[in-house]
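hey
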């Protein structure tokens, strides 16, 4: 069956599920109502259930997707997805064979986001229904370092006849057309949807990244999850990153030793976040959301992809879907 039919989409465009409260039901519902795939970022299981209901109320005939940011996923998140009968789950930054099987048995279409051939092979061998091929130009955490259009053929070959969506570098209809022409079945955009009115990114965060003239890879904001990510500079990165963007030794050591913190309950993780200052080498992956003080833009991760250098303003999610649609301008 065609992917658009199966997921009840008008256009082959998906909004990335951005965790830590960035992509909530307002954004996912607006994207779904505009005919694209709206995705909820990971949040506590009870909030996830409520968020799915809100998207369903606002966009009743559309699919709902949930992002499973694996370092932080607990059994309760999967239970919530199954109970709410979500249409799609996107597993990222770790692959769990039993979880893929459980979701698929529950009727959930499982995408796995990958950035290397080995990750793609494992995902397919373990039963993924489709792949999201993420390029190194993407915003947020990174699964590999090859550009999206160069990695796409590898993912397509491994996926055989399963759908492959391209993520990284998508900010215009032209980008979408190039991805489709290269064989992708659709595209995923994160940064473009972060810069919408329905996103819960702090307004100062949005303005900061719109004004940036450079993004870079670092591992600075790795407390509990020491994986590379693409950000824009702030006081914390100026204090703790080298010229190449890499984190200095002190935060690197803290991050490597803090893996078990990913298992902290959400409330405990939030209090760590409140302690953050640009002066201490202790930086969690949480980005600035609307409920945080404006000063948090200097001490938290300002995730953004390379497309931020071409995006000019904050628009509505419906406008973003129209701009990314292959028939758009
Ligand atoms: C602010 C931000 C937060 C993100 N959070 C997540 C996340 O929680 N889970 C995930 O799988 N990917 C996350 N991503 C990565 C996206 O899934 C996607 O790969 C990326 O945004 C695509 O590149 P683009 O930003 O150039 O559109 C995030 C990206 C951004 C920009």
């Amino acid at each position: 069956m065609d992917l658009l039919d199966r997921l009840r989409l008008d256009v082959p465009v998906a909004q990335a599920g951005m965790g830590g409260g960035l992509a909530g039901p307002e954004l996912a519902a607006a994207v779904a109502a505009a005919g694209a795939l709206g995705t909820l970022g990971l949040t506590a299981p009870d909030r996830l259930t409520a968020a799915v209901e809100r998207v369903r109320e606002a966009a009743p005939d559309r699919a709902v997707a949930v992002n499973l940011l694996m370092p932080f996923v607990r059994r309760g998140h999967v239970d919530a997805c199954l109970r709410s009968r979500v249409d799609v789950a996107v597993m990222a930054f770790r692959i769990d064979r039993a979880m893929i099987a459980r979701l698929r048995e529950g009727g959930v279409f499982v995408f796995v986001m990958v950035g290397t051939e080995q990750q793609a092979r494992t995902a397919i061998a373990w039963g993924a229904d489709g792949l999201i091929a993420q390029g190194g130009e993407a915003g947020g955490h990174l699964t590999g370092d090859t550009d999206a259009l160069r990695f796409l053929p590898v993912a397509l070959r491994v996926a055989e006849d399963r759908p492959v969506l391209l993520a990284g570098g998508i900010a215009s209809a032209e980008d979408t057309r190039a991805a489709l022409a290269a064989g992708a079945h659709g595209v995923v955009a994160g940064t473009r949807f972060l810069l919408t009115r329905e996103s819960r990114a702090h307004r100062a965060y949005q303005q900061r990244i719109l004004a940036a003239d450079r993004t870079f890879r670092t591992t600075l904001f790795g407390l509990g999850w020491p994986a590379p990510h693409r950000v824009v500079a702030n006081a914390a990165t100026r204090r703790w990153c080298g010229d190449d963007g890499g984190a200095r030794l002190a935060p690197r050591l803290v991050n490597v030793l803090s893996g078990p913190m990913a298992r902290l309950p959400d409330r405990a993780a939030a209090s760590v976040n409140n302690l953050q200052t640009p002066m201490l080498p202790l930086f969690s992956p949480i980005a600035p959301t609307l409920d945080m003080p404006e000063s948090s833009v200097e001490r938290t991760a300002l995730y953004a992809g390379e497309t931020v250098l071409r995006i000019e303003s904050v628009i509505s999610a419906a406008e973003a879907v129209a701009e990314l649609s292959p028939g758009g301008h």
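Residues 16-19, 22, 41-42, 67, 69, 92, 113, 134, 138-141, 167-170, 188-192, 194, 287, 303-305, 307 surround flavin mononucleotide (CB under 6 Å). Residues 3-200+311-324 form a domain with the TIM Barrel fold (CATH 3.20.20.70).
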